[in-house]
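RECORD TYPE: inverse folding
INPUT: structure tokens
STRUCTURE:
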């Protein structure tokens, strides 16, 4: 707070300090971090020059005066007039209200910025996780036996590689859409290890059962037809029945084997993608606004 009459300036400063305990009112030039200057002065040309200089340097100035002045029409200058005396309570109340209206509450501003930064980090992380789940469902949610154009079959290594490439590309786009830089990830993110079910022995047993059942059905057909049409026809009928039954059951076993491979591939991709998403979310770096704000205001 500045002014030509120090006694008036000190009286006004003390009154403002009582009305705004959370604000520090300093008489004189003040520190470099002052966010507003109050001039207790008249309306002379010399006072106007000082007010304009303060306005140009600080971006604004509050003029507390008892005289008429043309400075009220100038941008960046807030004029509050006192009536009977410089220390009149109603006039000081109006001055305090004017100062509060044009002054930034820096502690609250910084606190709001910290809270906003924390909220944004949470929103970005939640958005990335939700989008990742949506991408995974879209890529892996095709019915068994149907592979959309451009996708891959999770039952094969080539298909899983294709799906993994698509998922990572979509995840990268999701992160960039949030206005965040894609983090640097390790070359390979290890998923949680889950033991693979032992399916080879079961497939071997099913194949042996298929052969035995086909041979048995062929023999039964051969015996039955031989009694009615002779051995030669019975032999041919037995071979045909055995071959057809073996073909049908082999196709059924192959389909079941592909479905099991697909289920294992889907589970493996989901484990890998969960590990990737967790790593991405943990490595996201969102520049906080509060750092730039505190650097700007020097706090």
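DESIGNED SEQUENCE:
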């Amino acid at each position: 707070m500045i002014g030509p009459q120090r006694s008036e300036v000190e009286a006004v400063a003390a009154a403002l300090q009582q009305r705004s305990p959370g604000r520090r009112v300093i008489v004189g030039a003040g520190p470099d971090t002052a966010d507003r200057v109050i001039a207790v002065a008249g309306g002379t040309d010399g006072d106007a020059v000082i007010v304009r200089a303060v306005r140009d340097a600080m971006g604004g100035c509050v003029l507390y005066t008892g005289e008429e002045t043309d400075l009220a029409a100038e941008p960046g200058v807030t004029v509050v007039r006192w009536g009977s005396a410089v220390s009149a309570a109603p006039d000081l109340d109006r001055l305090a209200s004017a100062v509060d209206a044009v002054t930034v509450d820096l502690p609250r501003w910084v606190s709001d910025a910290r809270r906003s930064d924390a909220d944004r980090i949470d929103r970005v992380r939640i958005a990335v996780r939700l989008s990742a789940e949506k991408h995974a469902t879209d890529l892996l949610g095709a019915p068994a036996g149907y592979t959309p154009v451009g996708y891959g079959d999770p039952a094969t290594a080539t298909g899983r590689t294709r799906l993994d490439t698509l998922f990572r590309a979509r995840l990268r786009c999701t992160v960039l859409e949030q206005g965040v830089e894609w983090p640097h990830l390790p070359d390979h993110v290890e998923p949680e290890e889950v033991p693979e079910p032992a399916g080879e022995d079961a497939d071997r047993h099913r194949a042996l059962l298929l052969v035995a059942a086909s041979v048995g059905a062929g023999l039964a057909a051969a015996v039955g037809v031989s009694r009615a049409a002779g051995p030669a026809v019975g032999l041919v009928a037995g071979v045909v029945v055995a071959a057809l039954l073996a073909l049908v059951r082999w196709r059924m076993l192959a389909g079941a084997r592909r479905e099991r491979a697909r289920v294992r591939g889907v589970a493996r991709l989901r484990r890998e993608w969960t590990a990737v998403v967790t790593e991405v979310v943990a490595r996201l770096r969102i520049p906080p606004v509060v750092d730039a704000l505190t650097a700007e205001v020097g706090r």
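NOTES: The first helix runs from residue 6 to 19.
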